[in-house]
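Worked example 2:
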Amino acid sequence: MRRLWYHREPGAVQAQKKPRPTLRSLLSIIGPGFITGAADDDPSGIATYSQTGAQFGFGQLWTAAYQVPLLLAVQECCGRIGAVTGKGLAGVIKEHYSRNVLLGVVLLVLAANIINIGADIGAVAAAARLVYPAPFWLFAVLTVAIVISLEIWVSYPAYANILKWLALTLLAYPATALLVSNDWAAILRATIVPHIEFSFAFLFIITGVFGTSISPYMFFWQASEEVEEEEAIAAREGKSGPPQLPPHFVRNMRIDTTVGMFSSQIVQWFIIVTTGTVLYAHGVKNINTAADAAAALEPLVHSFPNAGQLARDIFAFGVVGLGLLAIPILAGSAAYAMAEALDWNEGLSRKFGEARGFYGVILVATFVGLALNFVGIDPIKALVYTAVFNGISAVPLLYVIARINGRADILGAYRGGPLSRFFVWLAFGVMAIAGAALIYTTVHGG
């Protein structure tokens, strides 16, 4: 039976009978939203959450819970924009806003992503050296070679499946948190009751927590990947021309995004619990090296011989896996933004010869990120500073996204509802306040 398709005319909605969900159908829904959520816990996220737990114990544990509606609203909004318009965020901004707005948005994404790529490459190399003491530069170059090979020469469906499985490396943190003895009443209280300190150290880390959770690259990646999903469906259905909105696509996107964002925040919560219990409680207040961060996982394997090395191996596997997941997404989202702004062919489903400009941006962004690792910046500290930069650069991008979310002339019947608009604007406000407070305490020496 031939499938019915939505047309992209504002207000055009067709009533459809909802299919009965099955486990197989739910698993088939998992895609860009889950991958984006997994990439949210990239090496920068792991380092920032680990530093948060080590430095403040459970003091910022509440952020994992309170970020859920903000993160979910923003990512659902971005996915819906891509699905309904058939364009990535940069393409929508180009069509409906001034050239200056487009230029500012694209430059912000490029800068934030390249810095993040560099930090993640350094983290992967530093983590790999915990397992085998080869030169740092060798692991950094090897990381770039693997990432570029995956992103350019592996087909999109196969690539997406690789990314889904790499996300499982994060399970070491929940396992560790559940094995060690914890004051769960205190943890529950810290999760529900916000704790805020008006100091530079506290505001610096909390800006990084928001920045590594609600990151610019995630906005652009998910919007563009929803378009790729539509194109993949169209190809399977034998459709030609611009992708159209399949039945139940937005509903499925929301399920996918919900699973991805909840998974992301659960992992954040467990990382803070684990490091708060294992590191902070034992006087380790600062994480300066990959080995320091890996020590949080030692209780997971304390009964095994060479527990310290085994913990470092598990940590290294997680960081390497998540780095290989996140770096292509960072480079890819920058490429989507640039290609849409300049009307280039785009998409990971295209071959290199069909989208040379798109893949060229991926190559340049990745190699510039690699070069940043040879200017004397400490890899672990770079991860936290990257998260803080993301937290500040996300603010103007969220403003534009919130404006698009409320425009019926762009999204038609899929314009954000009252709750969506409220939480997207709230995300903008919270991150703007956090960034402004950090800048204020920096200037006034708070």
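The CA atoms of residues 38 and 343 lie 29 Å apart. Confidence is low (pLDDT under 50) at residues 1-17.
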